[in-house]
Amino acid sequence: MFVIKNKLRTTSHIAFYLWVIGMIALTILSLLPPGNEPSLAGLVNDKIRHFTAYAILALIACHAGRNWPERFILCLISLMLSITIEFLQPLTGRDFEVLDIVANMSGILAGMGMMTFLLRRRLRRRLSPRN
Question: Is the whole-model pTM more than 0.90?
Answer without folding.
Answer: no
